Amino acid sequence: MNKENIVLQHHIANAKNNKQTSFRFLLDTFWSDVYNYQLKRTHNENDAEDITIQTFSKAFDKIHTFDEKYIFKTWLITISKNVHIDLLRKKNISVVTETSKDQEEKVYLVVDENPTPEDKIIREQNLAKLLKDIKQLKPKYQEVIQLRYFQELSYKEIATQINEPMNNVKVKLLRAKKLLAEIIKKN
Predict the structure, then answer these.
(1) Which positions fall inside the RNA polymerase sigma-70 region domain (predicted)?
(2) Domains and CATH numbers, the chain
(3) Gap between the Cα atoms of 44 and 96, Å rounded
């Protein structure tokens, strides 16, 4: 087993134990693979992004069912394909998932309030500059950043406000913070 596989197995095991840094590692590592796969299928950036968010939401919710005999990327792509098929079946462009109370309770276990490297970068910014940087994000990411950091809403409150499952809110926030940190570093 090569070093990359060892690191990946370590993060999968940690994600199964609800370690936030490992969820972030898996999201960062495989986001492009899933997103590009969906972009080829949907030919629409917004749909590809929504399906990718939903894919990671479902994957993180079901991470304990992942069998290490299989390739993690293939498992994610399979989930992604199923999300897309479900979307086509519903013929509903606004990707919304039903989540049970049980699933939402599991999401609470994943929440880690420790500041991430992205949080530190975001906090160090001058407010006017930060607001300008936030405006470079897509509207759906601007919204979750606004609700979380300026209105200080909980994940559950954000989920209610934007009418999406809490799993999706978590994935959107992880993604939004990463993109915002990249914009800040670039400027």
Answers:
(1) 33-92
(2) 3-90 (1.10.1740.10), 101-186 (1.10.10.10)
(3) 17
Interval 97-124 mean pLDDT: 57
Binned at pLDDT 50, 70 and 90, residue 121 comes out as: low
The Cα 48–Cα 129 span in angstroms is 30
Contacts of 22 (CB under 8 A, 6+ apart): 10, 11, 12, 13, 14, 15
Predicted confidence band of residue 107 (pLDDT cuts 50, 70, 90): low
Question: Which residues lie below 8 Å from residue 24, measured CB to CB, with a gap of 6+?
Answer: 116, 174, 178
| Alpha-carbon gap, residue 130 to 150, rounded angstroms | 12
Average pLDDT over residues 19-26: 92
Q: Quick check: 4 and 44 in contact, CB under 8 A?
A: no
**What would the pLDDT profile of 54-105 be if each residue is shown by its tens digit?**
999 999 999 999 998 889 999 999 999 999 988 887 754 443 444 455 555 5
Which of 63, 103, 99, 102 is CA-nearest to residue 79? 63
User: What residues have CB less than 8 Å from 55, skipping those under 6 apart?
Assistant: 34, 38, 76, 79, 80, 83
Report DSSP state, residue 147: I
Contacts of 186 (CB under 8 A, 6+ apart): none
| Amino acid code (one letter) for 23 | F
